[in-house]
Write a structure and sequence with these properties.
Elements (H helix, E strand, L loop, with lengths): L13 H5 L3 H8 L37 H20 L11 H25 L3 H39 L8 H25 L3 H29 L2 H27 L2 E7 L6 E3 L4 E5 L6 E2 L11 E6 L2 E6 L4 E2 L2 E2 L3 E4 L4 E4 L2 E7 L4
Parallel strand pairs: 3-4
Antiparallel strand pairs: 1-2, 1-11, 3-5, 5-6, 6-9, 7-8, 7-10, 10-11
Helix pairs in contact: 3-4, 3-8, 4-5, 4-6, 5-6, 6-7, 7-8
């Protein structure tokens, strides 16, 4: 075909290009991402996707996966159970029955059981929950009696100091502080068992600090609650439930505030959960024996990866297919704060506390 020199030439200006609606044109093609899944299937992302890839589904965090929430709930349930078992055998005033002896130790023991199994339940690991609960019960009873004796000793000393200072009534706030100070010991007992079950001295320290703070708050308001409810079973029920809940909430908040390195789940079944790296070596996989149990994903091996803390660095060792910040991990890789790790449908963000 020959070109006619008299034919009008087609000219395209920048103004013409600016009017082109590329979004509408692409939408009209109705091309879906190549995920390999049938239409309507929920996708957690592609193992080959980079962290900024829109095919990775970043899910909303559930409050049920927050440590302060499930530890607070566990403490409340444990304390309520301990009170419920012993209250009918508790005698107010002169005399006592077995409920007077067992109420506080059993309450502390069942709080410890709650703290021990709460995280395993959240992580869908019934095997871990049974093992940890079985260890926590005898430990909680022993520490419950031991710390109850210490708490009573401290409370007696504080009351004597109040009397010497001229305090004549339990309505005086100084007496409330005396009980709160004594109850800090009971919260510390829960923290000790929590750390022992977690096999970490650092976790023990966080648990003791959080437990003491929470229990101290519970003890501080126990007497005002008693006055408002006119004493007896109701005041003990409310006061002990507050003790358990405040202890668990404070443990979770302290643990989160003082952590120095952790994994935050940004996508997958546990989105919103954080795994604090307490141990020098943390295992990840589909086996319930792993520290981080990744369930219901056939692409994840029994022990898929290992995180090792060596000095100030965290090393990721891959057994199965893992992507770190969009790149496949072969062998060992040193993680940096903000690194994105993807194992199957699980996506984690590794974080380190900023050091001054």
């Amino acid at each position: 075909m020959s070109l006619d020199p008299n034919q009008e030439k087609l000219r395209v200006t920048l103004d013409d290009l600016s009017t082109v609606d590329t979004g509408a044109a692409l939408a009209a093609t109705e091309i879906a991402p190549a995920t390999g899944l049938p239409p309507g299937t929920k996708s957690y992302g592609n193992i080959n996707a980079t962290p900024d890839d829109p095919t990775i589904a970043h899910e909303k965090a559930s409050i049920l996966l927050q440590g302060w929430f499930y530890l607070g709930l566990a403490g409340l349930i444990g304390a309520l159970a301990g009170w419920g078992i012993t209250e009918h055998a508790f005698v107010d005033g002169i005399g006592h029955r077995w409920g007077n002896i067992w109420m506080i130790p059993l309450l502390v023991a069942l709080m410890c059981v709650g703290f021990a199994i709460a995280e395993s339940i959240v992580e869908r690991s019934p095997r871990k929950a049974l093992i940890r609960g079985g260890l926590a019960l005898p430990l909680g009873i022993v520490f419950g009696f031991l710390f109850d004796g210490v708490a009573n000793l401290i409370y007696g000393i504080c009351l004597n100091i109040c009397r010497v200072a001229g305090v004549q009534s339990y309505h005086n706030p100084s007496v409330w502080f005396a009980r709160g100070f004594a109850w800090m010991v009971l919260g510390a007992a829960g923290g000790v068992v929590y750390g022992i079950i977690g096999q970490s001295m650092k976790k023990t320290g966080y648990g003791v600090l959080g437990g003491a703070i929470g229990a101290g708050i519970g003890g501080l308001v126990f007497d005002p609650i008693s006055f408002a409810t006119h004493g007896g079973a109701t005041s003990r029920a409310i006061g002990f439930c507050l003790l358990g809940m405040a202890t668990g909430v404070a443990m979770g908040l302290v643990e989160s505030a003082l952590k120095d390195r952790w994994l935050y789940v940004t996508a997958g079944p546990l989105a919103g959960k954080q795994f604090i790296l307490y141990k020098p070596r943390t295992t990840m996989g589909s086996s319930q024996e792993c520290d981080i149990y990744l369930f219901k994903d056939p692409d994840i091996l029994a022990q898929h990866a290992t995180l090792e803390v060596k000095g100030s660095r965290t090393h990721l060792s891959a057994t199965g297919m893992i992507y770190a910040s969009g790149q496949p991990v072969h062998g060992v890789r040193v993680l940096e704060s903000g690194s994105i790790i993807q194992l199957g449908r699980y996506v984690f963000r590794y974080q380190e506390k900023q050091r001054g």
